[in-house]
Amino acid sequence: MEMERVPVRVLPRPLTAALAGCAVLGGALMLFPPDHPAPAPSPGPGARAELAVTAGAPAALPDLAVFIGDREAFVRTHPRDGQAWAQLGSAYVERGRRTADAADFPKAERALRTSVKVRPAHNAEGLGGLAALANARRDFPAARKWGEAALRQAPNRWTSYPPLLDAYTGLGDYKAVRRTLERLQGLRSGAAVPAVMARAAGVYRDQGRREDAQAALTDAAARATTPAEEAEWLHQAGELAWERGEPADALRHFGAALRLDPGLGAARAGEGRALAALGRTREAVDAYRAALAGQPSPQYALELGELYESLGRSADARAQYAVLRARVAKERAGGVDGELLLGRFEADHGDAGSAVRRLRAEWARQPGLDVADALGWALHRAGRGEEGLGWAKRATDKEHGGEVRSAPYVYHRGMIERELGLTGPARRHLEEALRINPYFSPVGAPAAKEAVRELGTL
Predict the structure, then answer these.
(1) Three-state DSSP class for residue 181
(2) pLDDT band at residue 19 using 50, 70 and 90 as cut-offs
């Protein structure tokens, strides 16, 4: 059984030698008082990234660049060092995630598979890296396979658990999510780790426990050991504030995250979302553009396109939708599954029939709630509302695991019910969506308000 390795910092010892006799050449040596040891030197960028990567925590892009360069040089002269290969692969995964550059993912796979090949036994670090890579590619069955293999090798290593939480969530196995979180929190070595608190917050959020999620993220940010880590937990707190319809609070969290880590594209896109909700649309467009410049995620392109659409800038919207298609294709070359995003996009802005086909296949492979919601909406847009309503219910009913309080999910259900003539349920769900977050979409929120007005006159 592999026990978790806890990094130990060795502090310089205070100078304790006593001066004997008279001063030499009239000089005097200054002694550190016994109760005031010399401060420890701060870790350099490579060391910071190594600590983050090996502990499953976020790392800043400049630090990652230094660490990747160091590991690349090391494995060239130590090609059978499985741990070094695992660290290199995990660093590639983190950089690819941070930059939305899927070109890092094939390199990560080669490094991680090399790690497992040269060190087939007792290599939970390499197996966990493969699980993290699969999650980044939205390949949740593979993430479950590698994550469970890592857990079998090192059940007392807390970093074996977070990739499994992501995998089980993507597969819609919410019982396994709860069971895995309970085991993780039961480990003495992991219960107080900021990354564990943040992972727990994600589970609480999916269970509709927003206050618990917010408290866990606040604790995680307070205990973070690097600016990049604190920035990530502040960004996630901003996302929670956004989801509960508090754009000013969300903007405050995103701004704090960006002051700590200016390269955090997710926080910059969050700023765009919040600024648009506050009516500051010019600033919102600038924020989205800045996010896309540093992290060209197709999700951000979709959000900016819909913002343009809400402003009547159709040509600009179409340009962003073209960017989305191009980015999804580029990510596909790096092994990323973009079918969910493409399905959502096609349902609203392209071929709804194509969206249905894509999302049915996605559900067969990895049946998470986000896929159920998207499939229900695509069926509605394709003129098959009765079938779509069943999927919308699956995404929003607690009996199916739909405990997350999601304004878009409830909006989709309400609009499908409205189309089917179910006036009472439609009004109830549309009003609920607007209570959860009256700004949830620059296109959808106004449509929900208009539908509620119309239903109120019936």
Answers:
(1) helix
(2) very low
Asked if pLDDT for residue 8 goes beyond 60, the answer is no
Burial zone of 22 (CB within 10 Å; 0-12 exposed, 13-18 middle, 19+ buried) = exposed
The whole-chain average pLDDT of the chain stands at: 90
- Measured between alpha carbons, how far is residue 100 from residues 165, 225, 297 in Å? 22, 25, 6
**pLDDT tens, position by position, 272-321:** 999 999 999 999 999 999 999 999 999 999 999 999 999 999 999 999 99
Are 363 and 285 contained in the same domain? Answer: no
> pTM of the prediction?
0.89
> What length is written for the chain?
458
Question: 359 and 260, same structural domain?
Answer: no
Measured CA angle at 222 (ends 216, 225), to 5 deg: 115
251 within some domain: yes
> Measured between alpha carbons, how far is 87 from 129 in angstroms, rounded to an integer?
8
Domains of the chain: total: 2
The CB-based long-range contact list for 309-314 (8 Å cut-off, 24+ gap) reads 309/442, 309/443, 310/442, 310/443, 310/446, 311/281
Q: Kindly state whether residue 325 falls inside one of the protein's structural domains.
A: no
The verdict on residue 269 lying in a domain is yes
Q: Which domain holds residue 409?
A: 350-458
